[in-house]
Amino acid sequence: MKVEQISIFIENKSGRLAEVTTILGFAGVNIRALSLADTSDFGILRLIVNDRDKAIAALKAKGFTVNKTEVVAVEVPDQPGGLASILHVLDKDSINVEYMYAFVERRGSNAVIIFRFDETDRAIKALSAKGFNMLDGERLYGM
Amino acid sequence: MANYFNEEFETLPRIALEALQLKRLKATLDRVYNNVPFYRKSIDSVSMTPESVTSLSDLQRLPFTTKQDMRDSYPYALFAAPMEEIVRIHASSGTTGKPTVVGYTKRDIDNWADLMARTLVTAGAHKGDIIHNAYGYGLFTGGLGVHNGAERLGASVIPISGGNTARQLMIMQDFGSTVITCTPSYALFMAEEARAEGLDIKSFKLRVGIFGAEPWSEAMRGEIEAKLNLTALDIYGLSEIMGPGVAQECFEGKCGLHIWEDHFIPEIINPVTCEVLPEGEKGELVITTITKQGIPLIRYRTRDITSITYEPCVCGRTHARISRLSGRSDDMLIIRGVNVFPSQIESILVRIEGVEPHYLLIVDRKDNLDTLQIQVEVDERIFSDEIKVLQSLARQIEKEIKDMLGVTCNVKLVEPKTIQRSEGKAKRVIDNRKL
Questions:
Q1: What is the CATH number of the domain that holds B375?
Q2: By percentage, how much of chain A surpasses pLDDT 90?
Q3: Is the pTM of this model over 0.80?
Q4: Neighboring chain A residues of B416 at a CB cutoff of 8 Å
């Protein structure tokens, strides 16, 4: 139930984000979801893409520092209180969220939240027990 | 039992070595007093003559020779032999203005080849080795100096010189190079390029690396040895004194560089007060050449910071050892009154696991206060998808530098390969202060 996200180190200077997306575009990689965390000096761009290996190879060839991380994609109904219902479960079990980001499915009426947990396996267990649906890689990358 | 190139001189008992030094020193003083107006004046200025030197300690009464003296004597005024006897001229890369010029007689070139061959053997090289000499050939003494020594030894030397790293790697692999000579930063650069090209440099035949021409650290040695799968040894030399082959770390002891005392007399001084320091204390290295004919130098201030020991070495050589250079007295940065050598920062960086020594120090002055920024490249081993991990790495480096050196700095993490790589000496410091 884990999915792979790629992260890219980028310096906080103009044009870097454009460069990353251009490289991915030329490589024929499609971005499914993204989040950018930044500090005054640098940022970390996190992406869910349709083809991780191709994306990593293309970025590394251009000298970027890239790594892969396991995250969890949880589906919730796209309605008020959807996200809160997940966070309650996590809170109850004292599971920390390192960071998260969300997108809305193109078809259907669900939102997908990407979570990075400190204890991924325990989080999956807790969410499964409460009946939350977690997407597998194939489904997420191909969305 | 170590291998020697010239066993008699390398293992000469110290009493005999010092007697030889005194004899050669007196001959050198005689030569410069009679042939170089600069030295006649400087020796006269302390009311001495070559004859008044009767022990090695008398040397301490003579004035120093500085880089500025060499510049003022541009190009030939310090030569102690007529031009008809000078067979080679080299020049150091002058960072400001005119270069420093040195001339060699046939005997100087001959001695240099012997000392460099001795240096190679000290590093564990022998006949049959294939020496990949990536020091630059030309006015710089590195390339030709190592080259002549390798030929004198009877090894096979590849005069590849610097530059074109892809070709260097191909030749190193295909020709089966067993010994490499270059700057330590270039060795790491080659390892990086090899990795980028998908070459396994660890499977090459390299056995020994002889690295010098810039200060490096013990931690960097560990990194080079791990990445290139060889024994990395430190070499010391400078064109003013001769070129490469003035001192060399031995393969057996790997602890300090034997300075060839049958040709050079080393002293360590306090760079500020100029007093001679006792054995073991850190200061500026001063060298007197005692066999050179072309341009002998008396008490030349090298600006290199080191210490000296006369303790016996496991290799059996009786020549004193200088410690790994820890910087140059003129590279020394004074940041808010604290003396900082770039090499100190480097050794802290490599000690923090995973951080490669690709760094740049930027010194500036804001509101009358010195600021130090350290740019450090982020590679895959230290990268994380979590901001807090990277930030805590930066804070850790700042803290260690504060604890060890007493200087507050700001660490900026930058993308790989944004810091300029050099194929010669690495540029590690940018000082923007307008003083």
A1: 3.30.300.30
A2: 71
A3: no
A4: 63-65
